[in-house]
Amino acid sequence: MKESFSLDALLRDNIKKLVPYSSARDEFKGEASILLDANENAFGSPYSKNFNRYPDPLQHRVKEKLYKIKGVPAENMFLGNGSDEAIDILYRAFCEPGKDNVILVPPTYGMYEVSANINNVAYRKVNLTMDYQLDLDNIAGAIDPYTKLIFICSPNNPTGNSIRRQDIETILVNFQGIVVVDEAYINFAKQPSFSKNLAEFPNLVVLQTLSKAWGLAALRLGMAFASREIIDIFNKIKPPYNINQATQDIVLEALDNVDMVNEWIKEIVAERDKLTVSLERLPQVARVTPSDANFILVKLEEPRRLYNFLVDKGIIVRDRSKVELCEGCLRLTIGTPGENKVLLQAIHTFYNTTA
Questions:
Q1: What CA–CA distance (Å, rounded) separates 126 from 124?
Q2: Tell me: the pLDDT tens digits for 110-152?
Q3: What does the alpha-carbon distance between residue 118 and residue 255 come to, in Å, rounded to a whole number?
Q4: Where is the Aminotransferase class I/classII large domain (predicted)?
Q5: Domain boundaries defined on the chain
Q6: CATH assignment of 259-354?
C-alpha cells in the first residue's frame, strides 16, 4: 500500500460535507407486499411489463453477477450511465473548479477533455510518444500540487495499442492523486486488467464498459472499479436511481451468455488480424498500428477523400486524419466478416479508380 496516499486530502471540501439524498429504496431494504413509501403508481405501467417501481439504487443483483465474471467484489464496484458518468463524478469529487487540474495523454478518448470543460477544470496535455506510449518524464514535469487526476486509456482509443503496464505502475506508485485506467477495450487485449490490483494501488480507478465486447452499447452501462472508500464517494454523488430497471433486467439476462461473448471476441480478434494483413498489402497504406482493441488505426493515402468515398457507399468509419499524432489516419471498427469484405472491396475500388 502507498502510505503517502491520502484520499481525504484529495477530496473536495463540499463533497466531504455532502449529505447524499436518501431515497425510499435506500431507507427500506427487504421484501414487502404493499409499497406506499415512494409515491409510485400502484396500478402498474401502460406496458406489457411493469416499471412502476423505482429500481435498486445500488444494483445489487447486477453487481453480484458481474462479480462472478469480473472477480471484483460489489463493494469495489460502481455502475454508471456509461463510463461517462464515472468520468464526470471523478471531476466533481476531486477537482475544485477553477483551481485544480488533470493530465491527459493525447491522442486519447475525447470525453476526458469535454468533462474537464464542463466542470471548469484545467487540463494539461502530455502527448504520447511517437510509438503511442506514455512520456513519463514530461508527465512528471506537468504534475503540480493541484493535479488531481491522470487519465490513461489502455488499450488506447484511437490508436488501439496497450500502454506498457510498467509505465502505468510507475505513475501509480509516484503520483499522489487518482490514476484512472480506462479499459473499455480490455476484452480484446492479451494483457490482464488492472482491476486485479485494487488492493495494491489505493489511488487506482479502473473503468470498463458493456458497450464493446458485450454488445450492449444502447443500454449505457459503465463500470468503475476502485477501493471501497472511492466507491463510497461515487455512490454518495451519483443520482439516486442512475441505472433504470429496464437496463438492469436486460443486463442480468445478457450476463448469462458469457460463452457467446467469448466466441464473439475470438472472431473479432481473428477478423482484426485478417483485416490488418489485407490492408498492409496495399501500397497506399503506410502503417496499420498494432491493435489490442476491436478497431485498427490505419495511415494511408488521401484519407479524407477515401472517407468521403466510403460514406457515399454507405460505409461509415472514423476520420482521425487531423488528430495530432494520427495525421493521415482513419479508424476502422472491426465488423462482421461480410462487412469487412465489403470495406476492403470499397478501399480497393477507391485506390484503383484514383490511381
A1: 7
A2: 999 999 999 999 999 999 999 999 999 999 999 999 999 999 9
A3: 33
A4: 49-347
A5: 7-256, 259-354
A6: 3.90.1150.10
